[in-house]
Amino acid sequence: MLLKHCSIHLIPSACCPSMLPVRMLSILILLFSLCNADSICTTELKTDPPEIIAEYGGIPVIVNCTTRLGDHYGLYWRVGNESSDTEDEEMFISHLVPLSDWNVTAECKIKFNESYECSKELKVILFNNPEVVHSVQLVNVIGEETQYRLQCDIINVAPVQYVTVSWYKNSEKIQTESFNDATTKTPVNESSILRVNISREENVVEFRCEAQLDFGPHRPKLPAISQTHRVSAHYAPELKTQNSADDTYALEGTDIILSCEAVGNPLPVYNWICDGKNMLENTTSLSLPRVNGNKTCACTATNYLGNITKTIHLHVEPTGIYSYFTSKIVDDLDETADLC
Ligand SMILES: *[C@@H]1O[C@H](CO)[C@@H](O)[C@H](O)[C@H]1NC(C)=O
Ligand SMILES: *[C@@H]1O[C@H](CO)[C@@H](O)[C@H](O)[C@H]1NC(C)=O
Ligand SMILES: *[C@@H]1O[C@H](CO)[C@@H](O)[C@H](O)[C@H]1NC(C)=O
Ligand SMILES: *[C@@H]1O[C@H](CO)[C@@H](O)[C@H](O)[C@H]1NC(C)=O
Ligand SMILES: *[C@@H]1O[C@H](CO)[C@@H](O)[C@H](O)[C@H]1NC(C)=O
Ligand SMILES: *[C@@H]1O[C@H](CO)[C@@H](O)[C@H](O)[C@H]1NC(C)=O
Ligand SMILES: *[C@@H]1O[C@H](CO)[C@@H](O)[C@H](O)[C@H]1NC(C)=O
Ligand SMILES: *[C@@H]1O[C@H](CO)[C@@H](O)[C@H](O)[C@H]1NC(C)=O
Ligand SMILES: *[C@@H]1O[C@H](CO)[C@@H](O)[C@H](O)[C@H]1NC(C)=O
């Protein structure tokens, strides 16, 4: 019976309180109090803004609480553990909410008599946009595939319940992760780990991890913060040409450049040995000035996964007398140089 009264009278009072005489309103207040005080709070107390979503440490926000009930014993704000002065007979009260306390709570309260009051909470979400640190660890190389462990550290994110970490492989979203912690309001660190196998055919693959604070439907979304890494499969050096042995012909006294190109990841380091002598050359080509005799050169391309050797036979043909003569002088000079 009582409940029926409540539901009947609640509606007109919420719709058009200004059309009702103050005395009538007071009666209605009493009726509400008897059924459910909280429903009065939700319908009769309004906060502006309805909620606060702000960056921690920003300037304090002015909040305003209004009521349509003129006849009450006081209206006030309780922010954290402190209460504002109470306004009697006023239909609104404004107050400052500081943004420098992660645990801040704000409630607008209305007193109906000395001992009875109800309140409406103003939701306050303080956030800290995180930093994102990406790291890559090579786990293993198995044949043509390389296993990587990609890690994205989300540093100082608050509140962690609103952050989503998304992984993209070459711009395509492949995984998202969120964290099951609805209670921590202060900044925390979280990590998201992605294990991937990269094949040689894939060449260079770009991975991006993105952290975004998204407060839900009809609420703001902060710009995502991301980090990108490129990874590729590792493999031992291979020669670009099929043959592991080559023949090169040259005229005596000419300058020759031998070349040896290999592919490998990481890039190979080269080493040249001609007729048993280390040429102290570590690039893909070897310069031999004024060649004066057959030589056999071996080029070895090496990385941590292995090496490959190419052998080049250099055939030097003597030229005419004049050339022979000059090259002979050069030979002698070379020998003198060697002696020094
Ligand atoms: C205050 O109001 C409540 C609810 O209407 C009532 O139960 C209580 O007796 C009142 N107290 C005083 C002191 O009037
Ligand atoms: C609070 O709301 C009242 C009533 O709507 C308005 O008159 C007053 O200017 C507002 N105060 C602030 C600080 O917004
Ligand atoms: C409210 O809490 C702060 C610390 O959070 C404390 O310094 C202050 O004394 C408290 N005030 C009251 C009125 O309890
Ligand atoms: C916030 O509240 C949590 C638990 O509710 C407490 O552990 C933490 O110390 C509080 N932080 C501050 C700054 O008051
Ligand atoms: C998060 O990591 C940063 C940087 O490593 C550190 O300074 C901070 O104390 C960490 N925070 C927590 C809650 O562990
Ligand atoms: C990567 O390859 C290894 C070995 O073949 C396999 O055990 C693992 O499940 C693969 N991981 C992924 C993410 O495909
Ligand atoms: C190749 O040799 C040069 C000079 O001798 C040296 O500076 C360079 O670091 C070497 N490169 C590699 C990849 O070993
Ligand atoms: C090349 O690889 C073989 C094994 O395949 C190893 O025995 C040799 O020492 C390596 N040579 C160099 C120069 O690294
Ligand atoms: C150099 O090589 C050519 C061709 O293989 C050969 O005919 C010639 O006898 C060689 N010369 C010497 C000095 O061994």
Notes on the structure:
One of its GO terms (cellular component) is plasma membrane. The protein is an alpha+beta fold. It folds into 3 domains: 2-124, Immunoglobulins (Immunoglobulin-like, Sandwich), CATH 2.60.40; 131-233, Immunoglobulins (Immunoglobulin-like, Sandwich), CATH 2.60.40.10; 237-339, Immunoglobulin-like (Sandwich). 16% of the residues lie in helices and 51% in strands. The protein has 4 helices and 24 strands. Helix 1 packs across helix 2 (22-35). It is rod-shaped, with a radius of gyration of 40 Å. One 2-acetamido-2-deoxy-beta-D-glucopyranose (NAG) binds at residues 33, 112-116. Residues 300, 302, 306-307 line the site of one 2-acetamido-2-deoxy-beta-D-glucopyranose.
Secondary structure elements and their pairing?
Blueprint: H1 2-15, H2 22-35, H3 37-44, E1 45-48, E2 51-55, E3 61-67, E4 74-79, E5 82-83, E6 92-97, E7 106-113, E8 116-127, E9 131-142, E10 145-157, E11 163-169, E12 172-178, E13 188-199, E14 204-213, E15 225-232, E16 235-239, E17 245-251, E18 256-259, E19 262-265, E20 269-274, E21 277-278, E22 285-288, E23 295-303, E24 306-317, H4 321-339
This protein binds 2-acetamido-2-deoxy-beta-D-glucopyranose (NAG) (9 copies).
One 2-acetamido-2-deoxy-beta-D-glucopyranose is lined by residues 102-103.
